[in-house]
Amino acid sequence: MDDEIIEVVDDGGVVTGTAPRAVIRSRNLWHRTAFVIVRSSAGDVLVHRRALTKPLAPGWWDLGFGGACDVGENWHDAAARELWEEAGIRTPLHHLTAYRWDGKETRETGHLYETASDGPFTHPADEVAESRFVSTDGLGDFIDQHDVLDASLQLIVPFLMRPPKRLEAPA
């Protein structure tokens, strides 16, 4: 996975070249990402704990599924692919917002999506250690009691504090 080639972008999101994932991480280069919030039909949020083998924030909790866009891949397709790879579901995605994240360990420009599903979910062991639904009312307590990625707290939490838009879990 560290030898996977990813597009490097400037801080405005314009592609400037490519580099192996390991180089992007070690130099904290800007790259394109896409993430998806998964809600149940009741509006609860599917949170997941990152696998202990992940190079970035192993064992920390995340409020969205996603990752780097493949070379030439658009954000929507990247979000759908990452959702399939990390949660084992294919569901319609609703675009929420574009974002920039200038973090200490990762710098990303991307898009955030939302979907609805009650599962079942399948998680590859090298990506996700566990997952569970958390109600929006219980989200504050969950965050207080667990290590949650800063990007999730800053980028995703604001979208969880409002009702989901036009989402229905497939029957």
Structural class: alpha+beta
Strand order of the largest sheet: 6-3-8-7
Major pleated sheet: 4 strands, mixed
Strand element count: 9
Element layout with pairings:
Blueprint: E1 5-9, E2 15-20, H1 21-27, E3 30-39, E4 45-50, E5 61-62, E6 65-68, H2 75-87, E7 94-102, E8 107-116, E9 128-134, H3 139-145, H4 150-160
Parallel strand pairs: 3-8
Antiparallel strand pairs: 1-2, 3-6, 4-5, 4-9, 7-8
Explain this structure:
The protein is 22% helix and 35% strand. It has 171 residues and is α+β, with helices and mostly antiparallel strands. Strands 6-3-8-7 form a four-stranded mixed beta sheet, sandwiched between helices. A hairpin with a 4-residue loop joins β7 and β8. The model has no long low-confidence stretch (mean pLDDT 91).
Q: Summary?
A:
This protein is α+β, with helices and mostly antiparallel strands and 171 residues long. The chain has four helices and nine strands, in the order ββαββββαβββαα. The longest helix is centred in the middle third of the chain and has 13 residues, at 75-87.
Descriptive key words:
4 helices, Nucleoside Triphosphate Pyrophosphohydrolase, 171 residues, 35% strand, four-stranded mixed beta sheet, alpha+beta
